[in-house]
Amino acid sequence: MASVSMSVDEVPDKELLARHVKGDPHAFSALVNRHRDRMWAVAMRTLGDPEEAADALQDACLSAFRAAARFRGDAAVTTWLHRIVVNACLDRVRRKSVRPATPMGDDATFDAVAPKMPDPTDAHGVSLDVQSALAQLPFEQRAALVLVDMMGYSVDDAAQVMQVPPGTIKSRCARGRARLAPLLAHHRNRQGRKNVGGVEGGGMPR
């Protein structure tokens, strides 16, 4: 019985990477296209600046292309790719002081970063505030929060991405959340005033 060939979409990540190493000219593009959206999300949420994120993603893709032969297979390919993206972001932060000045375009960001705080109505303004607050964190804390609170990584998986013990990720997240809380407290207070009387005290914010 003739075997049915797999479409590129059905080929596992590790096999695509192996095909690339063996010289398949299309395998790496297929792999990157499959994961580009989440790679971009990691870069954008970590750096906040679209141009810097685009450059970091380009650097990461080039690094992954060249380093594919060194992939040992002891982690998921996505973990390996995101590790390279995080490293590319860190390289750009080291080379140039990146001060994010644009929103992440994610209305759910506030919930992701501070899940115990109520969700305010001005999501766009909150996104701006969260991006500004994140920019004030040390890179390691910011990256840990992006992976765990925004991208949904488990602590163990985030530890693999950042190549540190799980306890370090927990510590970085805890410290990052503690530093974010006072920076975002005005949103929590606003929502609290709304909840007391059904409307926000003092009228519309100015």
From TrEMBL:
One GO BP: DNA-templated transcription initiation
User: What region holds the RNA polymerase sigma-70 region domain?
Assistant: 31-97
Aminoacyl-tRNA synthetase listed as a keyword: no
From the Swiss-Prot or TrEMBL record, what is one GO molecular function term?
Answer: DNA binding
The record places domain RNA polymerase sigma factor 70 region 4 type at 129-180
Which keywords label this protein? DNA-binding, Sigma factor, Transcription, Transcription regulation
Annotated Pfam families: Sigma70_r2 (PF04542), Sigma70_r4_2 (PF08281)
Q: Does the keyword Transcription regulation apply?
A: yes
UniProt similarity note: Belongs to the sigma-70 factor family. ECF subfamily.
Name the record gives this protein: RNA polymerase sigma factor SigM
Native species of this protein? Actinomadura rubrobrunea
Lineage, opening ranks: Bacteria, Bacillati, Actinomycetota, Actinomycetes, Streptosporangiales
